[in-house]
Amino acid sequence: MASEKFSIKSGEKVMLSEGTHGIDMILTPSDDALQPGSSYFWDAPQLPSEDMYPFTTDENDNKYPMQFICQINCENLPDNDRLPKRGMLWFFGEIDYFLGYDVKQPYGLGRWPEHAVRVIYADVALSNLKRVNPFQEDDMIPPHAITFSEGPERREGFRLLGNPYEEDVDN
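Below the sequence we write its predicted structure tokens.
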């Protein structure tokens, strides 16, 4: 399994092609979203190894799994020069507050501390992916398939790259 680092500098605008600055993600509820290597939000990730699932610690140093946000098959992305052309990206975060759980420190809008988010990349055969779920099955948000398209610099909704829609979000 090959792994590479891809980085975007904080606040950097990334042009995908003439006149566009982002990748829009359109979400559609779908049980088919769980096909191996598909791009989707929620449910549980498909990882090459259970050991890859990220954990974090609370204020008492208790270890617990981070919430899975989405996985992206990079082959599904519009052409761009900032993200991998193949492989998988997985996004995790301390988003418990947004899911309705009582937490001491909700991060809200803007920049989050580095320990509160994880992005994992691996160039792996889709046949090597398996669903990894450290939570109870009845706690799962149903999966939502992702369709990608190029978009303008600012827009509401789920996006990769580009700038925040809200003017008051700290960059």
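The two ends are 34 Å apart (CA to CA).
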